[in-house]
Amino acid sequence: xxxxxPKLKYRGAEVIAAGGACxxxxxxxxxxxxxxxxxxxxxxTCDRPSACKCIYRHFDDRRRGPRRENEHALxxxxxxxxxxxxxxxxxxxxxx
Length: 96
What we know:
- By secondary structure, the chain is of the alpha+beta class.
- It has one domain.
- The protein contains two helices and three strands; from the N terminus they run βαββα.
- It has helices spanning 23-27, 68-76; strands at residues 12-16, 33-34, 55-59.
- A three-stranded antiparallel β-sheet has the order 2-1-3, with no helix packed on it.
- It is elongated, with a radius of gyration of 24 Å.
- The model has no long low-confidence stretch (mean pLDDT 78).
């Protein structure tokens, strides 16, 4: 990509409700949305749009916690004992 930051596919944001925020903003507490789906501020259902002080907190990734692709690598190395399976598989071609 020439110039600027690369576009992040899962960039997200959440609404940070300011003190005395409306019920609509408080309902979005700890809810991460894709940046393209984040509602404009003040929210349409805001009780006090002229006094709204809510802001966005942006994230490079909307998802929380570890990625599953990293967890699968750990499971493969978890077993340290001897292989006890006797048969190779259930398909007919597994035996030939």
